[in-house]
């Protein structure tokens, strides 16, 4: 018997990719009908359309921090998005909704809550769950979490610590194959720098200064995701420092990589922000993490995520305010000269992986979909 599923969550990769992982599993059954509910101006639109998903648009933005005229217009926008979500519920009659939190998921989840007919399941990927997850958790049929420490924020008896759902390739792709796929030498150290889907100005600004030295003096291979916004500034600066970088086989600089699975799996060391999805991908990829949490993340969740990893002896920790060319160079050369430390960090970070997260979450999704059978 065919079932209809609504998948929702967007704005950043941390909300989008767990939702995409679940959607990908659902459409493996040709009888399932999947709709992605998201903001047509966000990253979730281009990703879901590229995959051929049915997309249901809701125009909604993040809640302003202070009460103002902007807050009033936001409230009107949210009400309009909820009304549109009611229409989607009535028209498509989903068997369940799977939401990954964030403001994008709020309208359809609030509509389901008010409708009192369509069951929903929530997944939150951070050490401290976001406001949408916390407020809507009590009425969710199941709440899935990435971290044990997040349970204290959730008022729901059906709460499971699954980890983040990752695409199956994280299990099947090996490091040597990933390096060869990207054109890198398997015998050389490969450092990946990524600031999340939006990039990171402070990391990009510091790292661009040391690329030439790392490659020319130490033979370190580099894959550098700058983010779209920072790409031109990085390239302009790099041209001043190292004008022949584009001829260097050790160096790949891109605004964004469509296949981040291969990028992370190929790496030996990853310099990264501490968003939960990035951490889950790191844990599943046998890499040594250098974590620089974004200091202005909501509820300081990135610092909490990174501290959790540090407490498990599974990363090098660096504050954003301490990030400069000297601090990054020192960390990387210390690791370059100490392969035992790299292997120890790889081992400890791999222990934090949840390889069965997607399998367990899918079992829960199907369980929730049966509530109205």
Amino- and carboxy-terminal Cα gap = 11 Å
Largest sheet: 7 strands, parallel
CATH superfamily of the largest domain: Glycogen Phosphorylase B
Q: What is the C-alpha radius of gyration, as a whole number of Å?
A: 21 Å
SS field, number of helical segments: 16
So, CATH architecture of the largest domain? 3-Layer(aba) Sandwich
The number of domains:
2
Which spans have pLDDT < 50 for at least 5 consecutive residues?
none
CATH C-level of the largest domain: Alpha Beta
Percent strand: 5-15%
Q: Report the helical percentage.
A: 40-55%
- Judged by helices, strands and strand pairing, the structural class is alpha/beta
CATH topology of the largest domain: Rossmann fold
User: How many runs of DSSP E, i.e. beta strands?
Assistant: 13
Overall pLDDT metric: 92
Strand order of the largest sheet: 3-2-1-4-5-6-7
The topology string of helices and strands comes to EHEHEHEHEHEEHHEHHEHEHEHEHEHHH
How would you describe the shape? globular
């Amino acid at each position: 018997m065919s079932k209809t599923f609504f998948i929702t969550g967007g704005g950043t990769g941390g909300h989008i990719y767990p939702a995409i992982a679940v959607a990908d599993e659902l459409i493996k059954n040709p009888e399932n009908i999947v709709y992605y509910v998201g903001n047509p101006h966000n990253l979730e639109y281009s990703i879901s359309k590229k995959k051929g998903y049915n997309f249901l648009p809701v125009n909604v933005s993040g809640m302003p921090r202070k009460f103002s005229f902007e807050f009033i217009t936001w409230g009107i926008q949210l009400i309009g998005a909820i009304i549109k979500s009611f229409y989607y519920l009535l028209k498509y009659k989903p068997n369940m909704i799977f939401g990954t939190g964030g403001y994008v998921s709020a309208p359809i989840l609030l509509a389901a809550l008010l409708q009192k007919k369509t069951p929903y399941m929530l997944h939150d990927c951070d050490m401290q769950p976001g406001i949408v997850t916390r407020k809507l958790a009590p009425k969710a049929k199941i709440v899935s979490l990435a971290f044990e420490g997040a349970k204290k924020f959730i008022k729901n008896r059906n709460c499971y610590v699954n980890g983040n759902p990752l695409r199956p390739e994280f299990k099947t792709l090996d490091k040597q194959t990933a390096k060869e796929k990207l054109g890198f030498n398997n015998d050389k150290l490969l450092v990946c720098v990524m600031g999340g889907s939006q990039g990171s100005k402070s990391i990009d600004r510091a790292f661009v200064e040391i690329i030439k030295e790392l490659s020319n003096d130490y033979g370190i291979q580099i894959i550098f995701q700058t983010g779209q916004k920072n790409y031109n500034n990085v390239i302009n600066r790099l041209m001043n420092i190292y004008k022949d970088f584009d001829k260097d086989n050790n160096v790949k600089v891109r605004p964004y990589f469509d296949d981040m699975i291969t990028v992370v799996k190929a790496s030996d060391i990853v310099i990264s922000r501490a968003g939960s999805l990035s951490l889950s991908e790191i844990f599943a990829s046998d890499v040594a993490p250098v974590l620089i949490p974004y200091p202005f993340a909501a509820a300081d969740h990135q610092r909490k995520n990174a501290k959790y990893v540090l407490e498990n002896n599974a990363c090098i920790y660096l504050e954003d305010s301490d990030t400069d060319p000297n601090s990054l160079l020192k960390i990387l050369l210390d690791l370059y000269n100490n392969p035992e430390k790299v292997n120890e960090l790889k081992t400890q970070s791999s222990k934090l992986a949840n390889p069965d997260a997607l399998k367990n979450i899918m079992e829960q999704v199907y369980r929730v979909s049966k509530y109205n059978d």
